[in-house]
TrEMBL record:
Natural source organism: Lactuca virosa
Example of a GO MF term: ATP binding
GO cellular component: cytoplasm
Family annotation (SUPFAM superfamilies): Adenine nucleotide alpha hydrolases-like, Argininosuccinate synthetase, C-terminal domain
Record PANTHER family: ARGININOSUCCINATE SYNTHASE
Protein known as: argininosuccinate synthase
Subunit structure comment from the entry: Homotetramer.
Signal peptide span: none
Length: 479
């Protein structure tokens, strides 16, 4: 897991992070009293990781907080707040707002869940300019796919017939990491920049409640007087916070390794067709290659493990399928959904790799699960998706349902070959050593296991209730 840690100190501008045992390409840079230490620590031992954390905590003890964080704020007093931080306008403004209103130090936290390197660039300078005392960045991509995406995939969880839960799955892994960071840095509160109209506020806060009910939660959008972008810019100028110079998108987007969502602007009218240039992960199916591409997806116990016979880590496998599916225009979804807070919203989603994997898992289950198992699994999948959408990832019910999904798919192993062509995913073949399909039984030719004459008695017994009802209606009609 990769960390980027930032601390502010007037007396000691550099963080004394001992790195003698962590020789994996560490480097440091300094911005006017704020030291930034980058650790490529994906393969670090736990002892080395704890050493880095202890060094940051030690430096915190030596740090004198600015005078603005010593006093009670306008709304109360908190010691230290961990803020879900993106570096955009909203979160840049939240940093000084928290300091002013709660008299606290602010630790900015950014999670890498595969949103792209461009969204992680320049965070050091932005955090320092906003007044944060520390920045922590963690690479959660493998954890996100392995522990959140793949369980949902195995369950067949789809919300309201279409949505593959991209944002819904990402929020609990980010919130869990925030709870961990709060413990590491000694914070007594967490904060997020979600609006009071959306689902994400619920997803973050239910995770906080489940994992550490003692943490206070601050949601500025439910408290402050800022009503839009212009108000935020004015607040930033008043508090000497540089306004991010990135171009404002006309769409509200959320991206991670599983999907990319688009909302807002012309999409707010369900009658409007999305513009062709809005899409970012996939080409227009009309512009996709004229030649189809075949893929073999290997699956073990309901979990994808390989592409064309090559075993890959969860995040790498998904990333490669995003590239492959994207160039064939796979995985575009346009839907009107029911938000948890009650209103309807229109969103467009791109999930190229996820659409391929969902098709592969579903097709393999057609071989390995019997009728009753498939029907009951589908029923449970609806509730599973609803719980994930509603932010109840750490609810005992979802965890118990996941145990069922793990057990019911233990024989869902094998491979599925799919044909990708101009936006469509077509199954070409399915193979499993646990297949319940028997050619000697299913064949139209006569066999020893299935005697066609037996069907007559079966039909009479199966249709007996319908026959009795018809007899009754006939008698009543005579009378």
């Amino acid at each position: 897991m990769a960390h980027l840690q930032v601390t502010t100190s007037a007396a000691k501008p550099l963080v004394p992070v001992p790195n003698r045992e962590c020789k994996l390409g560490a480097k440091s840079s300094e911005f006017g009293g704020v030291a930034f230490v980058h650790h490529n620590t994906r393969n670090l031992s736990q002892a080395c990781k704890n050493q880095a954390i202890q060094a940051v905590l030690a430096s915190d003890k030596e740090t004198d907080a600015s005078s603005g964080t010593k006093e009670r704020g306008l709304r109360g007093k908190l010691n230290k707040v961990v803020l879900a931080y993106s570096g955009g306008l909203d979160t840049s403004v939240i940093v000084p707002w928290l300091r002013e209103n709660y008299g606290c130090e602010v630790v900015c936290f950014t999670a890498d869940v595969g949103q792209g390197i461009s969204e992680l660039e320049g965070l050091e300078a932005k955090a320092k300019a906003s007044g944060a005392c520390q920045l922590v960045v963690k690479d959660l991509t493998e954890e996100f796919v392995k522990d959140y995406v793949f369980p949902c995939l195995r369950a067949g969880a789809v919300y309201e017939r279409k949505y593959l839960l991209g944002t819904s799955m990402a929020r609990p892994v980010i919130a869990k990491a925030m709870v961990d960071v709060a413990k590491e840095v000694g914070a007594d509160a967490v904060a997020h920049g979600c609006t009071g109209k959306g689902n994400d506020q619920v997803r973050f806060e239910l995770t906080f409640f489940a994992l550490n009910p003692d943490l206070q939660v601050v949601a500025p959008w439910r408290e402050w007087d800022i009503t839009g972008r212009e108000d935020a810019i004015e607040y930033a100028k008043k508090h000497n916070v540089p306004v991010p110079v990135t171009k404002k998108s006309i769409y509200s987007r959320d991206r991670n390794l599983w999907h990319l969502s688009h909302e807002g602007d012309i999409l707010e009218d369900p009658a409007n067709e999305p513009k062709k240039d809005m899409y970012m992960m996939s080409v227009d199916p009309e512009d996709a290659p004229d030649k189809p591409e075949y893929l073999e997806i290997g699956i073990v116990s309901g979990i994808p493990v390989s592409i064309n016979g090559i075993e890959l880590s969860p995040a790498t496998l998904l990333s490669q399928l995003n590239d492959i599916g994207g160039r064939h225009g796979i995985g575009r979804i346009d839907m009107v959904e029911n938000r948890l807070v009650g209103m309807k919203s229109r969103g467009v989603y791109e999930t190229p790799g996820g659409t391929i994997l969902a098709a592969a898992c579903r097709e393999l289950e057609s071989l390995t699960l019997d009728r009753e198992a498939i029907q009951f699994k589908d029923i449970m999948a609806l509730k599973y998706a609803e719980l994930v959408y509603a932010g109840r990832w750490f609810d005992p019910l979802r965890e118990s349902m996941d145990a069922f999904m793990e057990n019911i798919t233990k024989t869902t192993s094998g491979s599925v070959t799919l044909k990708l062509y101009k936006g469509s995913v077509i199954v070409a073949s399915r193979k499993s050593p646990f297949s319940l399909y028997r050619e000697d039984i299913s064949s139209f030719e006569s066999g020893q296991i299935y005697d066609q004459a037996d069907a007559a008695g079966f039909i009479k017994l199966y249709g007996l209730p319908m026959r009795v009802r018809a007899m009754l209606e006939k008698e009543l009609g005579k009378n």
